[in-house]
């Protein structure tokens, strides 16, 4: 797309070359959203891909995913066999409306920062207890959770010039048994609601997303389905369920407990 209203494109290769934020800036990762729906005020693009971060770094304490790692790279990465959570990478990618063609360009960080309820990389980070490293324009850093960043439907908490650098997923989450369920009006494509689960010592973490304006990660010290369903119902507020073309709030609120029950049952039999 020819963005004739863009006056400048900055291509930093180091953190020092990142420009001070200006009104009309957009950080550009894969550009599948920036190019498709450029804001009317857009004047300058700051291309993050020229920073050339390694996509994926496997370490003793887990996996570091660069914000600019494409969804395709994550899905097809060669990762340790005992990282059971790998199965969720593909599963979450399949929950996007975006097909595998978009996965080649769309980035994990871009998906999180866009903060769409259908952002399944957000769902992934939520259930896997991911830590997000954010670079601030004054040179300081923060480490936050995905729930700190994705705060509403297409609303993130990043200030102008804040940049998501990477996502760290701890080994304990990667090696734990996981389970996933989604529900959608159509057999393929964008999910109406997504429930992910991860086994913990004697309990589970359930992530509810897709049908809520932001993800909810709910740790429950039990694998008793009724208790987990009740815990999830107590955490997700009424106002968080929303209606769009992919489902009504009522339907989503009604169907998610069934998905939670299935996820907990599967995790119980895996333990
Ligand atoms: C056909 C199609 C289907 C799609 N389906 C879905 C879907 O089902 N669910 C969904 O969530 N999205 C969907 N998208 C939107 C988009 O493709 C994805 O969210 C994608 O992952 C965004 O990544 P990107 O790298 O292209 O982001 P970009 O378009 O480059 O950026 C997206 C936003 O995030 C900001 N940003 C990007 N990287 C960073 C960073 N590191 N730090 C701070 N800010 C950053 C940008 O400034 C911009 O505001 C779809 C898009 C298309 C074209």
UniProtKB/TrEMBL annotation:
InterPro entries documented for this protein: Diverse_Substr_Oxidored, FAD-bd_PCMH, FAD-bd_PCMH-like_sf, FAD-bd_PCMH_sub2, Mopterin_DH_FAD-bd
Alphabetized SUPFAM superfamilies for the sequence: FAD-binding/transporter-associated domain-like
Domain FAD-binding PCMH-type: 2-174
Pfam families: FAD_binding_5
Protein name: CO or xanthine dehydrogenase, FAD-binding subunit
Organism: Williamsia serinedens
Organism taxonomic ancestry: Bacteria, Bacillati, Actinomycetota, Actinomycetes, Mycobacteriales
């Amino acid at each position: 797309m020819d963005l004739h209203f863009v006056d400048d494109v900055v291509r930093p290769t180091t953190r020092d070359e990142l420009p001070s934020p200006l009104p009309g800036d957009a950080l550009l990762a894969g550009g599948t959203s920036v190019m498709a729906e450029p804001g009317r005020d857009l004047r300058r693009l700051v291309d993050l891909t020229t920073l050339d971060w390694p996509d994926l770094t496997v370490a003793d304490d887990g996996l570091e995913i660069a914000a600019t790692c494409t969804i395709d790279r994550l899905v097809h990465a060669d990762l340790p066999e005992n990282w059971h959570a790998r199965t969720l990478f593909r599963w979450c990618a399949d929950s996007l409306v975006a097909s595998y063609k978009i996965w080649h360009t769309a980035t994990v960080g871009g998906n999180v920062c866009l903060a769409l309820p259908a952002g399944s990389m957000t769902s992934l980070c939520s259930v896997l207890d991911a830590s997000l490293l954010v670079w601030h324009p004054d040179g300081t850093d923060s480490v936050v959770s995905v729930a700190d960043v994705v705060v509403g439907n297409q609303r993130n908490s990043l200030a102008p010039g804040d940049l998501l650098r990477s996502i760290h997923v701890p080994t304990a989450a990667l090696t734990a048994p996981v389970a996933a369920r989604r529900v959608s009006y159509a057999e393929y494509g964008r999910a109406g609601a997504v429930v992910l689960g991860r086994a913990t010592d004697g309990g589970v973490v359930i992530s509810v997303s897709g049908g809520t304006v932001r993800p909810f990660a709910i740790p429950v010290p039990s694998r008793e389905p009724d208790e987990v369903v009740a815990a999830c119902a107590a955490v997700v507020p009424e106002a968080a369920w929303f209606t769009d073309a992919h489902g009504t709030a009522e339907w989503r609120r009604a169907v998610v407990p069934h998905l939670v029950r299935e996820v907990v049952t599967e995790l119980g039999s895996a333990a």
